Each structure stands twice: as C-alpha cells, then as structure tokens.
C-alpha cells in the first residue's frame, strides 16, 4: 500500500499555530509528516505562544506526541534528507505560515535551504505545493511573487478565516484555515461546518 506522506514547513510569519494544528491533524489522520521550522519560526513559537524553545526535541514531543514514529523533523541544512530529492515520493508540501521572505525565495527558485529546496522539488515534479501567507498589507512585490508561484503550479491559500460558520472561539478561526488547507491536499477532516451543512 502506498505510504501517505506530506511535508510541512513553518516559517517566521505570525500564525505558527496554523502550522502546529496542521501537523497535528495530519498525524491524527495517520500521515507521515516531514517537518521543517525556520529559525524565525522557532522565535514565533516563543513570542506568540510562550513556548520554551531551548530544548526543541522536547517541545516537538509535547506538541505532537512523544516518540511519534510518523513525524520526521529536519534542520534547514539537512540536504541529505529524502525530501530534498524528486525521487522521494510524497504527496506534497504546505508552507504554513509562509513569510514573505520564504515566498520570495520559492518564487525565485533560490533553494538556499532544505525548506526552499523541497518547495522547488514539489514544483519541478508537479506535486502539490501550498503556501499560506500571513501578512497585511501586501505590496506589489508580494503579490507578484504569489502570482509567479501560482503560474508554475503552486497554490496560495491566505490565512483568511471565514465567518459564515459563526465562529465562537479562536480555535474555530484557526481550524477554518487549516481545514481549507486539508481540503486542498485531499485530507478528510471535521474541523469546520461546511456551508451546505449549516442549520
């Protein structure tokens, strides 16, 4: 049976909780997850959530389950990781949240670290690449970079929660965005009530 594998990148844009929740949901659905977190991403973990990032392995265990055999964490210099190669089969990659710096690197094909290289692999192999930008306002450079990525096969899913499901908590807003990502990578979920199911 084909292994179910996704790659997730968490960068330094505000909204690290989106990436955390996505990884949790993918693991819950029994996917293998290759995870990368930029240095700025780790800083957001600390600033937005108050996490102690001095022991990163311990924090990953706390967030995603101790000794989770389906989670593979990679540093950005780990170019020998399987996800750096197009011959490694995985179903796609989500960069969530995606900073404008990372967006720029992906749009230009920079491949200066493992996260950027893996995004480039997704595009060259015609696999799913989803970017979840969390920035406002957007300038023309940001918009042009999103268009460039979109034109070569990537998909842009801005962190824009819907309100028609009448969210009551912060979790409802987070789950809506993560649910839209899961919809676009073909993963079943129950994170929000769909429009036709509203009573």
TrEMBL record:
Record bears the keyword Flavoprotein: yes
Binding-site residues for dimethylallyl phosphate, renumbered to this chain: 164, 180
Residues covered by the Flavoprotein domain: 7-184
Keyword set, alphabetical order: Flavoprotein, FMN, Prenyltransferase, Transferase
Molecular function via GO: carboxy-lyase activity; flavin prenyltransferase activity
Residues annotated as binding FMN: 12-14, 38, 99-102, 134
Catalyzed reaction equations: dimethylallyl phosphate + FMNH2 = prenylated FMNH2 + phosphate
Record EC number: 2.5.1.129
Family matches, as InterPro entries: Flavin_trans-like (IPR036551), Flavoprotein (IPR003382), UbiX-like (IPR004507)
Pfam families: Flavoprotein
Function: Flavin prenyltransferase that catalyzes the synthesis of the prenylated FMN cofactor (prenyl-FMN) for 4-hydroxy-3-polyprenylbenzoic acid decarboxylase UbiD. The prenyltransferase is metal-independent and links a dimethylallyl moiety from dimethylallyl monophosphate (DMAP) to the flavin N5 and C6 atoms of FMN.
Family: Belongs to the UbiX/PAD1 family.
Xref: PANTHER family: FLAVIN PRENYLTRANSFERASE, FLAVIN PRENYLTRANSFERASE PAD1, MITOCHONDRIAL
Protein name: Flavin prenyltransferase UbiX
Species per Swiss-Prot/TrEMBL record: Anaerobacillus arseniciselenatis
